[in-house]
Structure formats: structure tokens, C-alpha cells
Design brief:
Number of helices: 5
Number of strands: 7
Radius of gyration: 16 Å
CATH architecture: 3-Layer(aba) Sandwich
Order of helices and strands: EHHHEEEHEHEE
CATH class: Alpha Beta
CATH superfamily: Gcn5-related N-acetyltransferase (GNAT)
Largest sheet: 7 strands, mixed
Distance between the termini: 43 Å
């Protein structure tokens, strides 16, 4: 499968939302958001989430048929004391595209864009501890665990822990 990755635009809102809902429904333990809440959001909110700025964007992976098969978002903190960090959110790759390097390409592109942001020092993410392939991927790209939140999520009567991970952007020495 030939994959190309780019930032999504408002024109991608429908494809983005269909894939996001698919992820929320098929892997509820992997997200802080729920399918039941997300499905109620109006189209304007979906388009707003794709309002591309250097500090807030979603990357999408497209198959050779130009079908969206993977997504991951980035949101930089806006408060002056927090602008040195951003959050990686919503990573999801459609089941039929897994095992082909799609997640690695998505996250690499996201980090490439984030590295260009002036004053950004680190990107953080949370990953459910039972998702070992994702944990391995994040570690292989340079994310390090700095803690584990017990009972971070409750899904269908079961508690899930989440690893807290950080990627520190290399900075040139003056």
C-alpha cells in the first residue's frame, strides 16, 4: 500500500469524522472521548477541529486510492507558561492499514511539523498500557515514559491505566 501523509483541511472533515468515529467505536479504551458523545457533535465543530494553524492541526494518511486510513492530531498549549509543550491526540489507523508503517509515518510527519514551531520544547501523549504495539512505536520514535496514571479510563466497567509519555525536541546549542 502506497501511503502519503499531509495535514488535513476543512475539505477533509467528512472523511476525518468517519474515521474518528470508527476508532472511537472499535477501540473505546484507546481514547478519552466516547463515541456516544462524539456522534452528537455538529458538523461546524468537526470543521473547527480541522482549522489548521501552526499550533493546532491533524495529519492524515491516505492510501493509494486516496482514502483516509490514519489520523493523528496536535494541539499546542496556549497559556504563556505552557506554550513550550503540545499534546498529541487521537492517533488511529484503520485496521486494514495496520502493520504497514502508517502510524510511524503519521507521527513522524506530526513531529516534523511540531519541531518547526518556535519555542516548542516537548510533545506529550497518553497511551493505554495494554496497547503494547503503540507503546513500542512511541518509544522507537523517541518518546519516554514519565509516569503511569492508574484507572485513567473506565470503559464498560473496566479500568484502564495510561502511560504518560514525552518527546523532547532537540534544540541547537547557542
Amino acid at each position: 500500500m502506497d501511503i502519503h501523509v499531509r495535514k488535513l483541511t476543512k475539505d477533509d472533515a467528512d472523511a476525518f469524522w468517519q474515521l474518528r468515529l470508527k476508532g472511537l467505536r472499535s477501540s473505546p479504551e484507546a481514547f478519552g472521548s466516547s463515541y456516544e458523545d462524539a456522534v452528537k457533535l455538529p458538523p461546524e465543530e468537526i470543521q473547527r477541529r480541522l482549522g489548521i494553524t501552526p499550533d493546532n492541526y491533524v495529519c492524515g494518511a491516505f492510501s493509494d486510492e486516496d482514502r483516509l486510513v490514519g489520523i493523528v492530531g496536535f494541539r499546542r498549549e496556549s497559556a504563556p507558561k505552557l506554550r513550550h509543550k503540545g499534546m498529541v491526540w487521537g492517533m488511529y489507523v484503520a485496521e486494514e492499514a495496520r502493520g504497514q508503517g502508517v502510524a510511524r509515518r503519521l507521527l513522524s510527519r506530526l513531529l516534523e511539523h511540531a519541531a518547526a514551531l518556535d519555542g516548542l520544547e516537548q510533545a506529550m501523549l497518553m497511551v493505554v498500557t495494554t496497547n503494547e504495539p503503540a507503546v513500542r512505536l512511541y518509544e522507537s520514535l523517541g518518546f519516554a515514559r514519565y509516569g503511569t496514571e492508574p484507572n485513567a479510563l473506565h470503559v464498560d466497567g473496566r479500568a484502564y491505566d495510561e502511560h504518560l509519555m514525552v518527546f523532547r525536541f532537540p534544540r541547537e546549542q547557542a
